[in-house]
Amino acid sequence: MAKVPPDDLLQTVLRSAPRERLGTTRSRMEDVARLAGVSTATVSRALRQPDRVSPAVRARVDEAVERLSYRRNLMAGALASARSMTIGVIIPSMINSFFSATVEAMEEGLEGSGYQLLIGNSRHSMEIEERLVASVMAWSPAAIVLTGRRHSRETIRMALDADIPIVEMWELSDHPIDTIVGFSQRAAGRIVVRHFAERGARKLGFIGAMLDRDYRAVDRYAGFVEAAAEAGFAPPVEYRFEKRASAIGGSEALRALMAQHPDVDAVFCTNDILALGGLFEAQRQGWSVPGRLRICGFGDLEFAAASEPALTTVRPPRGAIGTKVAEVLLSRLGGKPAGQTIFDLGFELVARGST
Amino acid sequence: MAKVPPDDLLQTVLRSAPRERLGTTRSRMEDVARLAGVSTATVSRALRQPDRVSPAVRARVDEAVERLSYRRNLMAGALASARSMTIGVIIPSMINSFFSATVEAMEEGLEGSGYQLLIGNSRHSMEIEERLVASVMAWSPAAIVLTGRRHSRETIRMALDADIPIVEMWELSDHPIDTIVGFSQRAAGRIVVRHFAERGARKLGFIGAMLDRDYRAVDRYAGFVEAAAEAGFAPPVEYRFEKRASAIGGSEALRALMAQHPDVDAVFCTNDILALGGLFEAQRQGWSVPGRLRICGFGDLEFAAASEPALTTVRPPRGAIGTKVAEVLLSRLGGKPAGQTIFDLGFELVARGST
DNA sequence: TTGAAAGCGCTAACAG
DNA sequence: CTGTTAGCGCTTTCAA
Question: Which of B82, B116, B302 sits opposite A118 (nearest CB)?
Fold first, then answer.
């Protein structure tokens, strides 16, 4: 069995491969094959399914790869196999750290697997989501991850047509496109009512942002209202605004809400950042929290534990969702059958000083 | 000149193209060419450089594309041209909303251009950055965007070798790899000293997180210390910690700093989130802000304007950086020569209640 | 276990 | 302005 050739052959191999189109002398699989004394088919196998070639060949290929500092051209591979090492991920917002945290966890879970995330930002719009899915499809992704369970007809059609694993996340559904990893947003809204009731609240308020597009927030709202009715509360008074959730928005909302309904003594904000603004506003107005007013947020963003008073909030499994999505994906992409397709990761009410 | 054929030819075209490898009947450029009665080369031109084909042909191609709902296979195009419609973007953190905001603005600036961002998260590590650049390179990106001006030797080599536009951002440098869009972090640190001096501060403190890896924060620190000396202050006392910036970290840091140095009356936090924690801690401890203690942050994160007291901070051009990067990229990718390669977008000290 | 050969779907000279 | 002709670099039958 031929050994890896000496250095002068290495030189020859390198020289014989002028790469004019790339600005660079980048070696191709053929160079590796020649240096290792095998065919490109074997190199391909050695690289992707090492157990399907003899140990000796594998070693020679590895050495050749090393010496040429060869890196596979993924585009070519993707074209040939009609499948790329790409995973399309569509999230509604990059700035919102809910999804960033999920994506970070997903990246970590996928680390070393060779899969690359192609991240799209739908800005909470189903139309943009559709466009993003369409353009991601042009990359023949190995899988697609969508946020939420509501998508345009066309998005669903494309996803189904692609015949690849589709994972939805951050919500729950009895009929996921394929697999869904999340928790019940509605239940998250409900639990807040129970907590307020336990703390002796009498008149509930609600503050929400972007409810025309953020369906998860709408679900939390629905759960909140529903549970309030069941618990015998009067219908919660509410203040909503179109713009994305912000501390300033939260401050203004609370001020407006209290001006109109001075009897409110417990407010649920669909987002911790709104609650933060509320906390500051209460301080400015001299409303003691939780004495005069109880405030509960959603998200358990990092500052929630640090605020004064510390913020009671619902903690979604931000990182866990990403980790589980990665796990599901790896399993499916590794060829394992679907198995469980609905993963309820739950949530937790973190009671702190603000209620 | 032949018209677009009637429907039965359309049927034939569709039927004659079995796409078994994809789960789907997805048409190829050849189908479009046949239906439009031209060659694939012409279709390719009509799609990518519409002005280089006759209006009549363009119209027929467009119609054929429409009827077949044809979408170009980008992998194939990228392979053939050794250049993809991808732009690699490496940021140090996804959760940090500095960079998320920049990326969002960049996305908006690139909207409609057909370029897709391939986002990598280096977690503030040059080694990870290097790995990410290497794997992004496998996609033959049209350009690369890096954060900061410090990169590993190998990263720089790969970037240079690729012979594509390389944009660094969020810092300034006299010798960018290619082009740099940002502002002077050092100057940002300096201006805080001037502001503190104007407000009558006498003893300066500094709180920083992750200074072993966040070079931008280190530069701000250096500017702060340098300007403090020039202004005749005693060397600022400091508290640093390894973990990523957080409100809790900020609270703890301030408490520790003040315990050791009760004479400090003005603290610069390298990040608004640290300052937020500081604000809450001051409230808990009963230190009036700005009476007993002045606090200045960096970032002008959204909550800074909403807090009580509102937070004085340095506002970096978060969105503007992304917008400018997109503009530079579009120009360069459109074939225009480099021109200006250093873009100083400046920053602004936003004086509010906390100082 | 390995190799030969035939593409994957598109782009890019180069003629015409 | 348009078509012909070669690939881009890899994967994948199918035989050996």
Answer: B116
